[in-house]
Queue: 2 jobs
Job 1
Amino acid sequence: MTLALTLAYPAFPPAVLSPPEPTAREREHSLVVAAQRGDNESFASLVRLHQRRAYAVARAIVLTHEDAEDAVQEGFLHAFRALDRFLPDQAFGAWLNRIVANAALDITRRKKVRDADTLADTIASPFRDPAESAELRRRLTVALSSLNERQRAVIVLHDVEGFKHAEIGRLLGIPEGTARSDLHHARARLRQALSAVRSQL
Amino acid sequence: MKIERNTPNEPGDEEVTRVLRDVYAPPSANASYWETLETRIMTRIATAGESPEWWGVFDGWVRVGLAAAVLAGVLAGATLLRAREAQERLAYEAVMESASVIPVAGPTVARGPGRNTRDATLRSLISY
């Protein structure tokens, strides 16, 4: 009998019997719940977890690094105010990124720059690699400026940030097919711009 | 109709992606940058909490305002109803009064003998 019990229920070492470490999702869930109860420290932890991705989403949509920072701050502020309406079982990151994308789109609408030269100057990031061909970047930024804001956002979100078409559609509030089509046109335009530079160099 | 199921990579796409990633490179190399941004975000939230939007002043008055609006609506309805009833009553009375003084058109009806007897009795009493 003892042998049978031992075989059926082998004695686990205490370390195995202890509760497992919470997953990242569970940690995030507990942070969200605590933040909803008014714990600002938990919300700060959520900011720490998600600010890089939020910045990337905003940067794909707006024209400048400064506008991206503003969009991130606005996005987090909106999220903080709407936290009571968020269901903790959902993915906080996806919800936050949609809010940040909306904040970035608002900024873009407010500060619509029509001048392509101005756009080419402002779109260049201050964090670029100086070893890269300046001409290549200049042409690319000019070509980027010829895209509409949605196409630009789609190609950056896809190629730089690695979002899938469906995710981009949800972020920007457009059908997946439109995101796919925008990516196709944007790539063709940028490819053309870069190949022109290559032929000249 | 051609349905594009995927976005195939064409020659040159890798270069486009590479230059795009360079142009849109996040400031991730600098760790203190993210700490600063986090501090700015939390400060922004704290500041926004201290100085709420101008319409936020009215948040506490929403329920009172709604109750007052409902009460005002009920009072206005009741007043309107009473005014209407009074108006109808006045109109009815006016019609009835005007109907009692309408001159009778047509031949005057001769007084009957009862009336003459009553008049004669009254005259004799007065003269007595």
Job 2
Amino acid sequence: MLFNSYAFIFLFLPLVLAGYFALGRVGNLAPVVWLALASLTFYALGNWQYVALLLASIAFNYAVGYLLIARGLRPKVRFAVLTVGVAGDLLVLGIFKYAGFLAANFNAVFSTGLVVHIVLPVGISFYTFTQIAFLVDAYRGRVARYALPHYALFVTYFPHLIAGPILHHRDMIPQFERAGAKRPDPHLILCGLIIFAIGLFKKTCLADGIQPLVGPVFGPGSPTFDQAWIGALAYTFQLYFDFSGYSDMAIGISLMFGIFLPLNFNSPYKATSIVDFWRRWHMTLSQFLRDYLYIPLGGNRHGPVRRYVNLVITMLLGGLWHGAAWTFVAWGALHGAYLCINHAWNRFGPEVAPRLRPAATLAGAVLTFLSVVVAWVFFRADNIDSALYVLVRMADPTRLALGRAEIFNLAFIAFYAALAWFAPNTQAIMGYDHARRAVGEGLRQAQPRPWFLYATSAVLAFGILGIQQHSEFIYFRF
Amino acid sequence: MSSIAKNLLKFLCASALILLMAAALNFAVDPLQLFRPSKLLPAVYSADTRMQDAGLIRSQEFDTAFMGTSLAIHFRQRDIDRILGGRSLKLSMTGSSSREQSFVLEAAMARHPKRVVWQLDDWIFRDTPEIDSDVYLPSGLYRRSAAGLAGYLFSGQMARESLWILARSLPPLEPAVARLTSDLVFKFPIADVDDINSLPPDYDVAGSYNARRALAAYRYITDPVRSRYLADDYNYDAMVRAFERDAIGLISKHPDVTFDIYFPPYSILQFAAARDFSPAALKTVYDFTTYAFPRLLALPNVRLYDFRAVKEVTHDLENYGDVIHHSPAIDLKVLSWLAEGKYRVEPSAPLASLEQLEAQVEAYRLER
């Protein structure tokens, strides 16, 4: 089921909200069970054949977590249990996500005819990562024992199940346990609706609106210099508005249930360096990769060379997490290289004079943006050849179309760029503070600015009016 | 009620009001003419035929449905009517599959046409998703399902078009709005139903259809980087399944309707490219014809024409904009051949035209 569908907005969400708050009067556990069942229903409506896999994954990780938390095992046994748990998760992910990719490469190298055709279960990358984090933290002794319904809800919680944000058990489960969240709070519902509306508008009006400019460039056609740039830039903005729109919707929906989700985006195209970009783009994935991959690899604790190696490994695996294809590996490798250059520049580059800092910041922002656009070409292309073909076209200004359509499309892209660069982001508009569990303080006043209320209600209406058939989120396929 | 709860209520009511206003506007203007033919406002049309056809089927008078892909997209209804007689409605859709064509024709059957002129080729019978999973074809509009009509009425894009049509109907605004109307921004820039996807009178036909362009297209598709695409979608079993479901299924279901089916005159370059760079795809084309022609000829309401071996057209590359798309002059020839019954495939020799084509493809040598 899609957030951007009539069935979700007018049927599923109101029903689940009503049931959640109605059961909140009965007790503290019933709403949690209700929400977990609703989440499974949400998943089953589009992916019923993978519900068993999801449930098995929850049972397996909960059992391994129980052994790590509740049983007084010896250190070596604990480590073995952790290894089995993480290896089991990675094995399942590997089978469902990477078996076909491995077989194709095996065939290419050894000229064999292995055929592996496994459909990727939606959300598997996300629920596997959240549970690996749980196991690692359980091993580190940083997890209290959780009740099964709360743990199951943590994994299946429908606002995040399919495409994140990647949640952390220590952030989420205490919120599920809190009795106050089960009472309807009109303020949180209103703020949640507004954040949901902004996300829906981003998806249906902005991301879906620019999507037609992308396909022709990455197809079998032969784009000119300007057309190739239009396609690459259009995808740059489509991906941002699509995924940040989804994240906003997830945050807004969750807020209606009284649950604060972590932020996933913070105006990433305003970044002034690649390091800054990764603090703003898919923030929960960056945090996961930092805490559970980069730091365990040694982080920056073993000298600059190891640091660069660790960065590249982390980004390569981060790329591969997105999909089983060489294009994602190339994308991850590019970002690994960018990060190494960025850190090396910070270490060895010249100090910028104070009077030149604004210009240097601007240059950094432009360079960062262009580097990100180049990397997105690999992220979007069907294969490496196709990506290189588009990049070659982007580097050849001698072939220029610049007709009526191209000029119009460039103006269209300029509008999106202005929004991404100069407009405030959702959390700034709403005053959303995940750490403080605060949102929309201005709306709590007895008389909020009426224009804000009506403008945001128009955003919700336009978001609903923009709903098209079958418009999936790009990150569903990861 | 607390002030915050009141604000929540105001927020929801304001959103609902905007939604209802948009739906009322779309219902009143009805850009697709789904509910009624345009009378108060001037009728306008879109070149997006997968959407527009749903409205045309409801709003136009016709006794002949004309269906095909981009090879049948530039025909003018006036030419069809003049040469073939009757009153036609062109429903051709660029890049359409047999599943889409069959679905749209089935919707058109509700208006009881006497005749269907159907441009078929092997490529349309490729494996495609179920019609309800087809993101390009709004099946709900054809079925007039509640979800389809709600999607139309509660569409922001349609509301923008409705506002624009409304502004265009106001005399003081009309000249300015007409000047600003562009197919880049608005979906309904066409004022005459006959102009939908027809080439305008000032169109540079000679510049768009000539041997230089046809040969450039040939070089493009046979480039080693892209030549593998020549084999895309040529799966014999899938093609036969689609053919039985979409063509035979539809024709058999409507025995009172005459189906004039023709295979269009691709340039010989298309077959030469397949011969040299994708022989398996060429074999599939031949095998498919061997299967399909006798099946079609067995149906009493089918008249089958094969123009693929009309050498004076297919070997004259000046007729083509690429390796398959022919010029408007050939559109008229196609209509004349249909009117005259020329190149009709006879049940006594169902594969005669195929044998001619095979011989031509075998013999053809590209002059470089």
